[in-house]
Structures are given as C-alpha cells and as structure tokens.
Amino acid sequence: MEWLWLVSVGAFTGICASRTHPSVNPGVLLSLAAGALGGLLLAPLLGTTFAGLLYGATLAGATAGAAIGGIVAVVAAGVARRRLRRRVA
C-alpha cells in the first residue's frame, strides 16, 4: 500500500511542477506518468536521507523522496520533449 502512496505523491507533485513554466511542461498525461515513475523510483533512494532528517520517520522520508522524485522526473521529461520537438521540426 505504501507504493500507491508514493506513486500518487509523485504524480501530484509532478503535475504541479509541470505547470510552473512552459519550457518544462510535457503535457498532462506525460506529467502524470513521469511524476508517478519518478516518485516510485526515487523514493527509496532519497527516503533514507530524509528519514534521518525527520527523526527516523521512514514513511515521511519516503514521501519527501517521492515528491522530489516526481518533480525531477517531470522537469526532465519536459526538457526532453522540448528538445525532441526542436530536433524533429
């Protein structure tokens, strides 16, 4: 059940991050997918770091890692989509 929480946190923060600037906005569906994937993949990597800062709360650390993972993945997807559009056009 924890993975569902991490996927949803990554997806929601990814969508919010994609709305900040047009150059990093890959679209709604790609933002959902990239944010969910980034949240799921980066939560274990960053979760242990943040859990130490949050007095050992592992779920809170994983949630913070998923949020940052969703943001990073969506920004990377937006930049990649923009570069691909320039190259094709």
List the helices and strands and how they pair.
Layout: H1 2-18, H2 28-53, H3 58-88
Helix pairs in contact: 1-2, 1-3, 2-3
Structure, described:
The chain is an all-alpha fold and 89 residues long. The chain has one domain (26-88). It has three helices and no strands. It has helices at 2-18, 28-53, 58-88. Helix 1 crosses helix 3 (58-88). The longest helix is centred in the last third of the chain and has 31 residues, at 58-88.
Structural class given helices, strands, pairing? Answer: mainly alpha
Which regions are unreliable across 5 or more consecutive residues at pLDDT < 50? none
- Overall tally of structural domains: 1
- The radius of gyration over CA amounts to 14 Å
Multimeric organization: single chain
Total count of strands: 0
Arithmetic mean of pLDDT: 90
N-end to C-end Cα span: 43 Å
Shape designation? elongated
Q: State the helical fraction.
A: over 70%
Largest sheet: none
The string of secondary-structure elements, in order, is HHH
Which percent band covers the strand fraction? under 5%
**Count of helical stretches:** 3
